[in-house]
User: Which sequence fits this backbone?
């Protein structure tokens, strides 16, 4: 999808409906800065408000994602292309998130390893050793909720029993036993528990 083209199209439709950036933002309960980012191609409208935006601009989601009014004869083809592009973008985004999770984990574990080595080989008071170790644990405690959110949102989990792929709740991910990116959870489809592995695509 061409974000610059989509941005220009949003601006054109906004002006065609006699709306300022501020007025459009108020209708969507967002800031005019967000609208400005859309129109300059720096960001895309969030999926949660895309339908409302299209309603205000009097266009379809297909029109929005193409950056132009789609004729009926090309509608189905363009819709299919847009859906495939959105799936591709989600997969790429999920890959980036999972890579960021790995980097986050390394950055949190290294201070803990370093502090353990220091207190093991450098003579010091017990209270100081405890302070050093506890301080090194803080980044890990801060990062853990964010890492769990990534585990929940990025990609899907595949049930080992029925093969169903789904996005679990944050609570399910938090409470589940795990080894790396495989978690022991209950499938919402077959309602059986199994070790479910992380996959990036919805389709099998």
Assistant:
């Amino acid at each position: 999808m061409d974000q610059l083209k989509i941005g220009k199209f949003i601006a054109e439709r906004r002006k065609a409906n006699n709306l300022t950036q501020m007025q459009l933002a108020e209708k969507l309960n967002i800031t005019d800065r967000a609208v400005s980012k859309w129109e300059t191609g720096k960001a895309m409208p969030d999926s949660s408000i895309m339908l409302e935006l299209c309603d205000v601009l009097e266009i379809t989601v297909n029109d929005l994602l193409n950056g132009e009014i789609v004729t009926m004869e090309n509608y189905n083809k363009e819709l299919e292309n847009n859906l495939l592009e959105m799936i591709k973008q989600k997969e790429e985004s999920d890959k980036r998130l999972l890579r960021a999770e790995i980097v986050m984990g390394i950055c949190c574990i290294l201070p803990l390893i370093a502090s353990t080595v220091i207190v093991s080989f450098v003579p010091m008071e017990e209270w100081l050793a405890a302070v050093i170790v506890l301080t090194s644990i803080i980044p890990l405690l801060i990062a853990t909720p964010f890492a769990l959110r990534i585990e929940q949102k990025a990609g899907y989990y595949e049930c080992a029993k029925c093969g169903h792929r789904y996005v679990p709740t944050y609570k399910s991910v938090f409470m589940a036993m795990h080894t790396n990116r495989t978690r022991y959870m209950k499938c919402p489809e077959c309602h059986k528990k199994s070790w479910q592995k992380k996959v990036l695509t919805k389709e099998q």
In short: The radius of gyration is 23 Å.
